Amino acid sequence: MFAIMQLIGGVILSLGWIPQIIQILKSKSVADLNLKSYLLMLLGISLMEAYAISLAVTGVGLAFLITNTMSLCVVLLVIILVLKYRARS
Fold first, then answer.
1. What's the CATH code of the domain at 8?
2. Of 35, 55, 65, 77, whose CB has the highest number of CB atoms within 10 Å?
3. In the record, which residues are listed under signal peptide (predicted)?
């Protein structure tokens, strides 16, 4: 039951980044985004990813690994977009 709750909650948290990504792609503007904040989030999620992998290897925490990997990917995508659109400014 808790694994399902983790999976649903993690998917919701990961999908929460989608409106930001869409806004960046539509406006092609990242002027108000702070790259350092996203880099710190990436660092934190990366550390949690290492923990999630260790849990998954022992046979528990697969839901945590899946949702954490999703979060890692979307934050990395935001960072890539910030770097891409800042270079154009």
1. 1.20.1280.290
2. 65
3. none
Dist. CA 61–CA 42, nearest whole Å: 20
Say how far apart CA 83 and CA 89 lie, in whole Å.
10
Largest CA distance in the chain: 48
* pTM of the predicted protein model: 0.90
Among 65, 20, 16, smallest CA distance to 45 is for 65
Q: Where are the beta strands (DSSP E) in 1-89?
A: none
DSSP 28: -
Q: 76 and 42 in contact (C-beta within 8 Å)? A: yes
Domain hosting residue 6, numbered range: 1-87
